[in-house]
Amino acid sequence: KKQLEIFRLVQSLHKDGLGYRRIAKVLNERGLTTEEGHIWKNTNVYSVLKRYSERQERLKFKKKKYPLICRKMWMESFK
């Protein structure tokens, strides 16, 4: 729940045009910490946004239905 709130805040700030460093500064000023309890750095902000977009891509493929293709099979013997 906390992660989702932080992600939405990060995404909102990023859409408003703030860079990764400024977003990290805002999060630190608000007293928010990373999952491990550390202060925010620009690399942490980048990772949060990147992981979310990668997850969205994975979900697209997970829900996609692929047609079943049947082909002839053969066996070869090796001597």
Describe this structure in words.
The protein is mostly helical. It is 58% helix and 0% strand. The protein is built from three helices and no strands. Helix 2 packs across helix 3. The longest helix has 22 residues. It is elongated and about 70 Å long. The model has no long low-confidence stretch (mean pLDDT 87).
What attributes does this structure have?
79 residues; mainly alpha; 3 helices
Query: Treating each run of at least 4 consecutive H or I residues as one helix, how many helices?
Result: 3
The residue fraction in helices comes out at 55-70%
Question: Radius of gyration over alpha carbons?
Answer: 22 Å
Give the topology string: H per helix, E per strand.
HHH
What class, by secondary structure content?
A: mainly alpha
Low-confidence stretches: none
Mean pLDDT: 87
Number of strands: 0
Largest sheet: none
Note the quaternary state here: single chain
Question: CA-to-CA gap between the ends?
Answer: 61 Å
